[in-house]
Amino acid sequence: MSLxxxxxLSKLYGFGDAATIALDEVDFVVExxxxxxxxxxxxxxxxxxxxxxxxxxTPSHGDYKLGAKVTPKxxxxxxxxxxxDTVGFVFQSFNLLPSLTVLENVALPLAYKGLTPVRRLxxxxxxxxxxxxADREYFYPTQLSGGQLQRAAIARALINNPNLIIADEPTGNxxxxxxxxVMELLSEIHKAGNTVLMVTHNPALTRYASRxxxxxxxxxxxxxxxxIGDIPNILQRSMYxxxxxxxxxxxxxxxxxxxxxxxxxxxxxxxxxxxxxxxxPAKSKKVKKS
Length: 290
Ligand code: ADP
Prior knowledge:
By secondary structure, the protein is an alpha/beta fold. The protein has one domain (4-240): 3-Layer(aba) Sandwich (Rossmann fold), CATH 3.40.50. It is 40% helix and 21% strand. The strands form two sheets. The chain has a six-stranded mixed sheet, with helices on both faces. α6 (176-191) links the parallel β7 (164-168) and β8 (195-199). The longest helix has 27 residues, at 263-289. The site of adenosine-5'-diphosphate has 11 residues, from β2 and α1.
């Protein structure tokens, strides 16, 4: 049985003429132990899809099965329980509570499990050791670097032994060395048997994924299995290179990608850009005259 089965799933925000179609009849199946990199321009529906998969939001139409559960039929209380036991979230902005120590932050999701405080802290401590932060247990989030904060957030996401990790741009706020450490940690978690869904703008990170999905305008426009360590075919076709070393390389890779995917829609955008560029000199003349 697949871990996730999504059929003809749509999400609309607003009503009537003001409605935005964030997801447009999406079909999506995730197998256990997939590591999927989800890419696509801003506004393409990636976060909306992750929020629905993670039971933080509900679809407007369509079916969604997580394991054996048909989620639209569940009450919000049942959804909260499944979310707690099944899904671990990692966000770009870490979302640790500043008034708690790192250890307390990691132990927090266990508060609903009926464990004694001592057992909670012991489990959190073991998890922090697993992510390489044993010596930071009693620090507060403000005393940690971005990479350390994200590793703590991953420890918190793992504390309930979820079978699905949803990471929304987990390296978006990190320098390249911290990004590498965080990606290696996610990769280890994947190798240990977990399923990982990761939204990213960075094509270089698709190397860690076993499958790459591209979204555009609320739809999945490309879905490709990829060998871990390899660059997916679509990136090889559409990019001049993928970063090996620097943030600048990454940026160049991203812009190369955004120029080429998806073909005809972006051709229209490029044509629009050209029209705007042509208009610019006329504007600057006007300024000079006045
Ligand atoms: P992405 O994560 O790819 O940037 P999102 O899923 O955030 O895309 O957004 C998809 C579309 O849905 C966008 O047009 C966005 O403006 C719209 N959208 C997302 N959340 C809301 C909301 N709460 N209210 C209204 N529109 C929203």
